[in-house]
Amino acid sequence: MEEVSDHKGDLKFIQRSGHKFLDNARNYREALTDFRTSTLPAEYNRTFAEAPDSNVIRDELADAYDRYTKLRNGSRNYYKHLKELTDKHTKYGNSCAVVLPWVNEAYAKLTKELQEPVAAEPDNVRSQMERVKKLHDDIVLHTKDVGKFKEHGKDLAELQDTIKDDVLSTIRDVSEKCTFMESQLAERNNHLQSALTQSYSVQEGIDGLLRWLDVAEKNTNRVVNTPIAAKKEVLLELMQDQKYVMTDIDSHKPTVDTLNETASKLMKTSDPTLARNIQAKLDGVNARFNKISNSTRNHGDYLHKMFAKLSQLEDDVEAFEDWLLPFIEKVTSKELGRVDILEMGTKLLEMQRDIDVHRNQYQDIKVLGSEVTRDPKVSDKVRVVDTLANLNKNWESLEGLMQKRLVQSLFVQSHQN
């Protein structure tokens, strides 16, 4: 690209010299014609042909300019492509350096844990449950890293076909391992919860759940009442925190179910007063458990929907600006002003059709953005508001420029008429 730029001066010199030569030739022709007409006898007063024709020289100059322009634009685009490719390689490489060693290590730890038989003593079962919880927390902790790894890998695969299959294969391998680990840990935790519940009496189980509910309710209130910002990175952190709490709640579901079954059997053979007392405690546990479970799950659904809206909004805005900004440059280009009036009218008509086609896309973006900014749960919406304002400004600028071009075209046409 630098070599092409170095010859910019050469092109200017050729253009300037060529046009100066054409001007001198025209002046010489006029002087020669005047001389033949005013000084020489009539038999010498006749027309003569240029050799070479000035149009040939003019065409050569135009061809040189066009070829240089294409070469310059081509080199710039290729440089931009290489820079983008290098950036995506770097991001994917950094993600691989974080995710691949971790997923292999976590997979090995899980395999070792699953090979150990479920213990019979409560203390030993709790130790096994703690190890399972640490493994699951580790997976949740790396959720964002895995997400970036997939995103960077797909971006690179789309840009470079030669490594597409290898990159997508690596992504599939990591995704399958993460899915397998989550399912196996959930199943293992259920077995351990059942084993732990069976090792306790009903009363001990209720007391344990009540202590856990005190902590779980605080965590649920913290998650549900945390201010929400219309930013993907913030939502990812909120989703990760919600997943921590939801996983903890779901992991205690087998304990609650088993406790209800065991207590039901116990109450059938217990003193009525004791049975009513147990039933009242169970009702309180079940009500509190269902409340935090529904509240946390609904909040998670809301966060995922909001994240999907923001992702779609960012993608739609990026795609629309990829069309809008070059289109504004096209409208304001000097090349458009150099064409004759008929061709300009045709081009402006085609450009207006293109604008009308994209108008619906622009309106859809505004509607989606309005859904985000008007959401009563979203407290920080500055980024989305600024993005929509900038997009609206560019759109209004485009319409203003097109109107100006149309007025200029009508003025030139009326002046020629």
Structural notes for this entry:
The structure is a single chain. The protein has helices at 2-6, 8-38, 54-114, 122-141, 143-159, 164-198, 202-225, 232-251, 253-268, 272-331, 334-338, 341-373, 382-416, and strands at 228-229, 378-380. It has 417 residues and is mainly alpha-helical. Helices cover 87% and strands 1% of the residues. It has a two-stranded parallel ribbon. The model has no long low-confidence stretch (mean pLDDT 80). It has 13 helices and two strands. Among the domains are: 2-79, no CATH class; 319-416, Methane Monooxygenase Hydroxylase, Chain G, domain 1.
Strand content: under 5%
Record field, number of beta strands: 2
Q: What is the number of helical segments per DSSP (H or I, 4+ residues)?
A: 13
CATH fold call of the domain at 319-416: Methane Monooxygenase Hydroxylase, Chain G, domain 1
What is the mean predicted local confidence, pLDDT? 80
Give a quick set of tags describing it.
417 residues; mainly alpha; Methane Monooxygenase Hydroxylase, Chain G, domain 1; two-stranded parallel ribbon; 13 helices
List the helices and strands and how they pair.
Layout: H1 2-6, H2 8-38, H3 54-114, H4 122-141, H5 143-159, H6 164-198, H7 202-225, E1 228-229, H8 232-251, H9 253-268, H10 272-331, H11 334-338, H12 341-373, E2 378-380, H13 382-416
Parallel strand pairs: 1-2
